[in-house]
């Protein structure tokens, strides 16, 4: 039974038990509407409590119905039946009341919540707007300003804030939600029903408010439809009657369900859910990770250490000498100080994390670590020397990992006594922020070590993607192709700024050239030079020529663009065209759309090669890599999804 009813002294307790998250499936909607009818006809009942079993209130829509035609009874009808009941309904909320779950709670006459509960309408994150009264009932309860914020950001609010906003009538003090709800229901049973949503009035904000919001959303979600349509639905709700507003909202919801944006966001959402639990590892138990080490306290090492500390794992940072160690530890302390200053952490949270950090130049302190992640210079001999020391210092069953970007992990592991305990864990900069983790096993890596890497990713809140071994793994290999495509356009006479603008208008925060200027042109250059020194035939790129001319990006005041007087704003350079002998201006007629199409096709083509070579397990994995590691716009679904839904063409 998904829904059960118990009568407790005149209060009907309706319990939803529909694991794992009490999602609003067709069966649940049916059961709820039948229950509402039966209770209305029961003279012994004076009030109703709606409560959920398990870890959460109704957490949203049923994934099984995602993207499919909606089935009756439809959610707006279920909610209308509850709201129109003869008896007062009290939603008793714990865990999350999200999307349709919050809309059901809004249809109830009262809402009470546990202090840790979260309430939200996250539909815009899936390219949708609420479809069962969210944009109509919520503002009538909490006012338009607060409702606009909740609906257009998609961010849930905590129960305390919900209480302050008037969304929650009572914060439950104590652990027993059910008892508190029954007591509350008894109390209100004797009172008249509060006004229904249709009878509540919320004043429309000023014209200036709506204009400002529309501009802000246009800026923040450039190119995306859902947030703007959510705002339009709210505005309509402010300016028409309840029924028309409900009809308008539902029509928008149904129209958006099949939009390219909703399809893309659904694809990414489902891929993210699948990523941390690959089927190949089903039944394989991860090993416990209680203590970790990071070798190298530079850009990546400190970021990785912070990611581990943030997940509650103790870290020992190892550096090659005391000065470098002091520098690495100071970087971490500064990072946490900034987090406190920006209000991301409290002083005591930051202190607790730093208390888990230790540092040493001596590998002997590593005898009790379960995992050591190496992030030293990108040089095979330096890395191999580090692993020889790690092998001697760590327990036999410790996992040893490399953060190499381009070296072959199997070559790094060569000669290790226990290669089955070794793998690549490729983090992205800044490693405590970027969600992507490429997990790169060698042929020798054992299944439990691989399973541990996936479990670690979950613990760190990362999106893990398994990658095979090739130059650049998945992400950097596609990046290389993307950059080569962008340089090819320049040689055809397209301007640097046109390429960047085209990719920005597609949805990237930055185009390929301005992004390179920010990161530094010398990183990829040095990597190519090292490969050339190793005898690989790598053609000279335009980027190489700029670096040889001393233009390494923003940090040198000049790269693809000029940055005079320490400015961070790219300015078109008058000399780059000459340095690179570009055929300037001959293709200025090419549209942004065509430029983006060329580069997206290049990415997808490289992606297909990566799939054929089984470097990636699925096209969705490639999409996750580009979205979470390289700024590919999430709402476009990733390069593979985009190519597929655009008929294999980037256009
Ligand atoms: P970095 O130069 O900022 O830091 C390297 C650190 O390693 C330095 O602090 C150095 O003192 C230390 N070190 C060198 N030899 C050592 C040794 N024998 N023992 C202990 N410490 C030693 O470099 P980085 O950018 O942090 O890169 C580190 C690794 O991460 C490289 O393999 C790189 O390819 C990879 N990586 C870098 C990025 C990035 O964006 N920077 C992204 C992913 C992966």
From TrEMBL:
It catalyses: a (3S)-3-hydroxyacyl-CoA + NAD(+) = a 3-oxoacyl-CoA + NADH + H(+). The keyword NAD applies. Coiled coil: none annotated. Pathway: Lipid metabolism; fatty acid beta-oxidation. It is found in: Peroxisome. Keywords: Fatty acid metabolism, Isomerase, Lipid degradation, Lipid metabolism, Lyase, Multifunctional enzyme, NAD, Oxidoreductase, Peroxisome. PROSITE patterns: ENOYL_COA_HYDRATASE. Residues 292-467 form the 3-hydroxyacyl-CoA dehydrogenase NAD binding domain. It comes from the Bacteria. This is 3-hydroxyacyl-CoA dehydrogenase NAD-binding domain-containing protein. It comes from Rhizobium alvei.
